[in-house]
Write a structure and sequence with these properties.
The chain is mainly α. It has helices at 21-31, 46-61, 72-91.
Amino acid sequence: MGKNPNAYIGIDKDRKGGMTSIGKIIHDAWVFELIPETETCEGWSRDRIDALYDKVNIEWDKYGCLFSHLPAELKQRHERIHTKAIELAKASGWSGELETDDEN
């Protein structure tokens, strides 16, 4: 059985250092502990990523989709995860400018 060419490559191998729409879902899933931080989602189908996206949105909805409404523990986890993600992305050439261009 071969690899699925439509499967997600994994956040650690994603373009823009993982600062893509799927990468952002994974970062937030780590924040809300929906998946372990060791989970790269490599090999996941689009349906599985979409299901994770729905779970992440349910969690954000609990806090009005605002970082400022997160409890202290989640704020700290969010800052740690996203700071590291931004550092890794910048090291791979991501600048943050026009970050939504060419995302599908």
